[in-house]
Amino acid sequence: MNKRHVIELSPSGKSFEAGDELLLEAMLASGLAVPFSCRRGACGSCKVVVAEGAYRAKRLAPGAPQPSYPLAANEMLLCQSHACGDMRLHIPGWSLDTPALVVAAQVHSKRALGPDVIELVLMPETPVAVRAGQYLKFHLADGDTRCFSIANLPDEDDGRLVFQIRRVSGGYFSEGILGGLAVGERLHVEGPFGACTWQDDEAAPVVLFATGTGYAGIKPILLTALKRDADVTLYWGGAQSADFYDSAFLDHLMLEHPRFRWHPVRSSEGRVQEVAMSHGHQWEQAQVYACGNGAMLGQVRIHCLEAGLPSHRFIAEAFVASGRSSAGAVSLSFDPVWEKVGPRYSLDGMLAAREKSIRALAAIASQLKVGMTTGEALEMAARQLQAMGASHTWHPTYIRFGADTVRPPREGIDRQRRLRANDIAVVDLGPVWDGYEGDYGDTFVFGDGPLHQACTTALHEVFDETRQAWLRGLTGRELYDFAEQSAASKGWRLARNLAGHRLADFPHALFESKELADLEIPPSEMAWVLEIQLCHPTEPVGGFFEDMLMLQG
Q: What is the rounded CA–CA span in Å between residue 11 and residue 88?
């Protein structure tokens, strides 16, 4: 008799029944959205905390590998466990209720901050969970949207959302709609989005750059940094004194926080990056955030990196044109069978997850040290992802040194292998950021081994050439046939067992697990990851690179 047990999920209070089947299968059958991916006990996506009740481990076939994901004493994997009775479980960092992406909000107040800047305060009807530095999309009556940074910390402001919006001559929203909005009027906003968010590095001095109302996106990061009692410096660029519309507040902050300084930089006096470079910051240790026009961001980044700032410590959000006329607007159309996505899927969310994954990879790579074991590197990577705000990993983090770089991820590695002075290393990340899957991997060379250098050169050439072939309309299968020929022409072998995969709002495994190399249609943008693993035909040297297929990389 298949006795049914009641499994309660805290703190939601929702429950499902499970019998002899695996807990993951029972939960999915009940219709509850649960994080999962590999089903092999390797990725940890379906990890839960056991608050009450007993369970037994899945019985493995003879010779089958043991689940490799490390667990605490009170944790288990849903894909590897059966209930022995009633249970109460908690899924860390996961809500069973799909957060509303579009919420209604009422106009709470509106006031002028300067001659052409309006503060708009909204009270959402549903609380919006916001990370410092994110933005929302405003949905307009004609179906168009506008994006504005959230200029406060809603959790500390009774849930209110504050925006600082510059009136633009002829602007459909800023001049046509904003002026007519009355208190109590209802709007719809979507999000939050954005990758320029607080990184929770308490030790680093913080340097902030903003131009114009880019200050709105920087202000919550400033407030968060001051709560951590960090050294904080703000450079705010504008054309005239009136552009520094929050100067009284900033002056007051300097009195309250001796470790905070801000500098208004008029365009007639120079550029924000030029002023900052003259102030003797310790750029090697700094954490930089920047928000404003793209030209400013590019110049600030160049100056900061030349001064010694590690690249992963430069975090920025550029202003782009709003509305349908935006040159950056993308219309996505997915195949209804092979490219299904979940209710939260959005272009902004996927782009932010990609940006955070790239940044995380750079941060992890910068901490790889000669003499470190693979096991130590994996532990470091887990700490880094957690510190940066990843809620899960939808696939395990893979780090491989030396001869292990030719091995596919599922084959296993030597955790005691040490990184040598002349070596090659692969890092492959699959973090989940704010409900969206990131996936990014690359190869790094230590020392000056010519074969290692040749591997990374060929690797990126094969990826770039294959991506260009995708733009010509090749199917997924044709892409990997092309990549195989490209690799062979350069003297390397393509590992076809790493064959690309879907990417979506987490978990994409609910929708489709088909490999890109098996796809008989041209893959759509923002839905697939192109994976390239090269192996030398005779030497134990390999490389790996992956990124989401998109028109502009």
A: 10
The answer as to whether 198 is a domain residue is no
**Pair (351, 450) in one structural domain:** yes
Please state, in angstroms and rounded to a whole number, the distance separating the CA atoms of residues 40 and 138: 42
**pLDDT tens digit sequence for 136-192:** 989 998 888 888 999 999 999 999 999 999 988 778 888 788 988 999 999 999 888
CATH code for the domain in which residue 294 is found: 3.40.50.80
User: Is 441 among the domain residues?
Assistant: yes
List the domain range (segments joined by +) for residue 386: 347-548
Burial of 478 (0-12, 13-18, 19+ CB in 10 A): middle
Helices of type H across 437-489: 450-471, 476-489
Instruction: Quick: pLDDT tens for 63-84.
Output: 777 777 778 889 899 999 999 9
d(CA 19, CA 29): 12
Residue 473 tokens, joined: 């309309």
How is 491-519 classified by DSSP, letter by letter? T-EE-TTS--EE--BSPGGGT----GGG-
Pair (244, 358) in one structural domain:
no
Count of CB atoms situated within 10 Å of the CB of 292: 24
One DSSP character per residue, 139-186 reads EPTTS-EEEEE--S-GGGTTT-EEEEEE--TT-IIIIIIGGG--TT-E
Statement to judge: residues 395 and 527 lie in one domain: yes
Residue 84: CB partners within 8 Å, gap ≥ 6? 5, 53, 54, 55, 56
Cβ atoms of 410 and 391 within 8 Å: the answer is no
- Judge whether 333 lies within some domain: no
State both tokens at 82: 């059966």
Q: Is the pLDDT of residue 109 over 80?
A: yes
Reported for 496-500, long-range contacts at CB under 8 A and 24+ positions apart, including other chains, are 497/408, 498/408, 498/409, 498/531, 498/532, 498/533, 498/544, 499/531, 500/476, 500/528, 500/529, 500/530, 500/531
**Bridge partners, residue 289, by sequence:** 208, 315
Over residues 223-230, the mean pLDDT reads 90
- Give the span between the Cα atoms of 296 and 346, in whole angstroms: 27
How much is the pLDDT for 95?
A: 64
Characterize 377-414 residue by residue with b for buried, 16 or more Cβ atoms within 10 angstroms of its Cβ, and e for exposed.
bbebbbebbeebbbbbbbbbbbbbbbbbbbbbbeeebe
Number of domains in the chain: 4
